[in-house]
Amino acid sequence: MTVEALADLSRRLPDLRLLTEAGDLEHYGRDWTRRWTPAPMAIALPASIEEVQGIVRWANERKVAIVPSGGRTGLSGGAVAAQGELVLSLSRMNRVLGFDVVDRTLAVQPGIALETVHGAAREHGLIYPVDFAARGSCSIGGNIATNAGGIRVIRYGNTREWIAGLKVVAGNGELLDLNRGLIKNSSGYDLRQLMIGSEGTLGIVVEATLRLTDPPPASQVMLLALPNMDALMQVFALFRAGLSLQAFEFFTDIALKHVLAHGAQRAIDGEHPYYVVTEFDAPDERAQEAAMTAFEQGVEQGLISDGVIAQSDAQAAALWRLREGITESLASHKPYKNDISVRIGAVSAFLHDIQALLSREYPHIDVVWFGHIGDGNLHINVLKPETLSDADFIAQCEHVTKLLADTLHRHGGSISAEHGIGLVKRAYLESTRSAAEIALMRGVKTVFDPNGILNPGKLFI
Ligand code: 2HG
Ligand code: ZN
């Protein structure tokens, strides 16, 4: 069936690039989760919207499942193809299509890397402000599919805020032109927003119009060492009151140990359980003094044990590396990842509850905490001990995630803050969304994708 079906696809779209070599199936069939064995039927690399539509129409007739694929840096298995699906990689559709100086928007194809978008915005004296460590390899289509967040959400919000328009191929092959760059459009349901964060289950993004903005004022980067967990949100309150924050990120001593072992430079001596990297506007002396005042108050109140402020761009980059290098430094330990959020106001109480839970449930296992604490978003990476098999380790982590999900439910939080549900978190969707909501989500899925060919098995069980 596969050979015949692919031959039919090639007949219909003679210019379509199709890959079926084992190495390509392996490469395009997985994302950063590395948990599933890739087993796609083939990889399609369309070069145009028409080709994407042609593939989707063919898949409908043949009832072939499609996995839309960007940079595959996802951490929830949203781009995994392990069930004989066709991977539809958007990597060849990776160009800037145009800049509109009046609207201050950049039209791009979905396969463009986030970093390339940053560069294109800078060429026009503007910025695209969504940013995170995978910027060099993730694609804007994937960012849209997961409503990606990152390190500047505290200032600029998530991807959702920056999408002025989307062209999407829906599950029946129809091309939708959603919102068309309008700022004001009070004409019924906003289908563009419905697409953002839908993880490739409702449509395939084939073009995006991104909103750009002015660059922020000159900034400073500070690394702070904190004596205990309670200090985290108190320092956040202190800094947010006195400064205009661009980022407020935290990590623990265990995270630091790994990132230093991976080549980053120590910036503060001594042992401290918690660290914060913060960046704030510092265009003039007054702002710089405000930062020193906040720092000194933190020290006086016993909330800050030590700190450094970057004196150059290179030093600022070195401080950021301590935070941004964490994911890569943990990769060889096959971490099980939780990406969770609660309201900022609920963080302190929530941290206490889960600290008790995680130390009880993972007594002899390294648990690495870090993340976007200023947005109420924590990344908890559980490192696999060498003595445990992959399967036993995942089983144990899934048991704990169920308990974590119950705690999140009590605190009104979310089981996925910014990585998406994919395959990894679908069993816990109910902790964050009510049965009524999930029923409506399933209904929406059927409307956009009547034959269920778009990323089946992701998001829902
Ligand atoms: C980050 O904030 C990313 O660095 C990755 O969202 C988080 O590896 C992780 O768990
Ligand atoms: Zn993150």
From TrEMBL:
Keywords: FAD, Flavoprotein, Oxidoreductase. Residues 36-215 form the FAD-binding PCMH-type domain. PROSITE patterns: FAD_PCMH. SUPFAM superfamilies: FAD-binding/transporter-associated domain-like (SSF56176), FAD-linked oxidases, C-terminal domain (SSF55103). GO terms for biological process: respiratory electron transport chain. Its cofactor is FAD. GO terms for molecular function: FAD binding; oxidoreductase activity. It comes from the Bacteria. InterPro entries: FAD-bd_oxidored_4_C (IPR004113), FAD-bd_PCMH (IPR016166), FAD-bd_PCMH-like_sf (IPR036318), FAD-bd_PCMH_sub1 (IPR016167), FAD-bd_PCMH_sub2 (IPR016169), FAD-linked_Oxase-like_C (IPR016164), FAD-oxidored/transferase_4 (IPR051264), Oxid_FAD_bind_N (IPR006094). PANTHER family: D-2-HYDROXYGLUTARATE DEHYDROGENASE, MITOCHONDRIAL. Belongs to the FAD-binding oxidoreductase/transferase type 4 family. This is FAD-binding oxidoreductase.
